[in-house]
């Protein structure tokens, strides 16, 4: 078997993102390697979602560049993004999950078979044949995760993946994320949940006002945050 060429490292070289005249992110200079789970933390509006979208090519930098090891058309096809509020199509949960395989040329039968495996893994068997338009917010997030993983992406971006989930579902989803990281999927995840960050992160990217204030190993970040902003954030203060 021929090994797929690596997408990593990805290098951000003096990258800034603007909305109209306001810089919302940057300047960023950072490099990410192939493995692990990076958790993005920071107060509301810090730039976490914009950062994820930038890496996935959904937001263009006005200054600087984001350089993956492969050209964009190969890079983004090997990535999946789970949005904070996932969009679903008005068809069954099973067909929603099979959809990315079918657009890549799989037959309906094969798509549905593989969808069923992911339906079991995310715990959606009870709604597999329901219209996705009527499932709960938590079920929708699980659907989105299964739909993202069915293509076996090299990189998975997750924006607040457990906002609508109860404790048991959050635990199941986190176990799944840990399993895919172990299997070699590179994960970037934004969360407000300090506990989730501790449980999942190999390293933490702490962002405030669009700037990276810290990029540290998970334990180092929580035990010895280097900046006053991160210390306040971890204490639960409101950061302005
Ligand atoms: N489409 C947009 N148009 C204008 N400004 C935007 C847009 N999207 C984001 N912004 C601004 O960019 C900044 C970063 O927003 P972003 O959503 O990336 O932050 P965040 O850290 O993900 O926030 P939250 O934790 O609230 O989701 C904010 O000031 C936000 O208001």
TrEMBL record:
SMART domains: AAA. The keyword ATP-binding applies. The keyword Transport applies. It holds the Pfam family ABC_tran. Keywords: ATP-binding, Nucleotide-binding, Transport. Gene3D superfamilies: P-loop containing nucleotide triphosphate hydrolases (3.40.50.300). GO terms for molecular function: ATP binding. InterPro entries: AAA+_ATPase, ABC_SmlMolc_Importer, ABC_transporter-like_ATP-bd, ABC_transporter-like_CS, P-loop_NTPase. Residues 10-234 form the ABC transporter domain. PROSITE patterns: ABC_TRANSPORTER_1, ABC_TRANSPORTER_2. PANTHER family: SPERMIDINE/PUTRESCINE IMPORT ATP-BINDING PROTEIN POTA (PTHR42781), SPERMIDINE_PUTRESCINE IMPORT ATP-BINDING PROTEIN POTA (PTHR42781:SF4). This is ABC transporter ATP-binding protein. It comes from Sneathiella chinensis.
